[in-house]
User: Fold these one by one.
Assistant:
Number 1:
Amino acid sequence: MIIQAFLRWVETAKASDRARAASALGRAYAAADMNGIDRHAAEMAMTFLLDDPSPKVRLSLVEALADCPAAPRAIMKSLAEDQPEIAFVAIARSPVLTDADLVDIAARGTAETRALIAARKGVSCSVAAALAEIGDEEEVLILLENDRTHLSRRTLTTIVSRLGHVAAIRDQLLLRDDLPGDARQLLAERVGTALAGCGLIQATIGAVRAERVRGEACDAAALAAAAVTPPEELPLMVAHLRESGRLTPAFLMKALCGGAAEFFIAAMVELSGVTQRRVRAILSGGRVHPIRALFESAGLGPDLSAAFAEAVLLWQREARETAGAFASIVASLHDRLRRRSSPSSNAGALAELVENLAFAEKRRLAREYASLAARQAA
């Protein structure tokens, strides 16, 4: 009877009075203090208020129900798709909206709607994935800045792929310890491409040199990422590098000489189809012919397989006997490759690469020596 009287009164009451009544009804429902009023009847009355012509009435209702964990979900979902000032309250605060509700609202809503969903206290993996797929820069940035967001590996990779060129998003991604190795590598490639295409850089050092610097920087970033990537994630990173055309003999030689053993093993597994256990056994066995056979099954020609086999044997010997073996390995390998008679063009290019690696290492050591001398003289 009370609800029936309320509904009759609503038809003639002023908007301000209806708003106060909606607020009182919503608060009483949220507090479970109905004083004998049937809760079903109260829900029917609140549902009736969803069609009130005054937005003030609906705003009062949503503010009363927003934090209630027992609020009727259908009512809250309707309010979440109301006018912006009403929807924002429901989206930002209501705990009864399900992941499916939030995904639907994000798909149908505006950028502001998606930003509110991204800023909620606790965003699930499925909601975050949806926002990563359709959100613009601002929404995704809010998602990354929300420390209560649950982001899966796939979602992080999606964000890198779609928006890795945006500096603010890139900065947030690089701060994350859970950024997958393949995503980190893709991010480095995005940065390199952006820099190489910069008009100022091209005017300063030329387009050809800018592209070469970009390639070298991407290789260095990939190897740095490989060094901190868990072994179980390396196959994904290797697969990404192969698909992007970066798993070249030059890159593999850099990885091998640089001591990225786990990454190199994962690359050989990917390229040759041989099991990881067998690859480890061959590379550690110290026998030239099985090592060369492995490299040739990975697509390296006879000259290249010989050079890689020498590098493996040098690494096995130098790494056991010498601390900081990189300089010794590249110097010895370069000397051996240079003494070869009539090398193929591929082997010649590889010898030039090893020479560049050796010289780059000398420059690094010279910088360290100069820095140490300066500190001692101070």
Number 2:
Amino acid sequence: MKLEHHHITSLFEQRYIDRGRAYFEEGMVEIVTSGPGNVTSRCAGTQLYKVELGLIGGQLTGNCNCPAFADFGPCKHMAATAFAAIAHAKESYRPSARYVTRREEFELLERRLRRMTKSELIGIILQHLGDDEEMVWSILGVDQE
């Protein structure tokens, strides 16, 4: 995908550009697919997020499965992917060893969780909820505002 800096500045707030650039510079993005008008990536943050970007009519658009995107729209993971896509097009980008390690940890965790029974998973959730009332109310689907 042929991205330019003006595509990034037209979609993202400066704070997301700055944070995304830091993720990119740390090598925390892996380009999964790249085509003439789109790119998909995985970006390691608190979790491993899936990012999709596309150029439609010269405008950058996309989505991310992180909570920030769901609440606020274009996020730092998308900005990091945009920077990585620009470097990838020049064949000058690879994810860092730190990213690879994080990805492998997330994948291992997911495989282990998928092998657990529903009862085991419920036990882990209850053990870690502790006194986090906000999380309890969130699971119950109750809005506390």
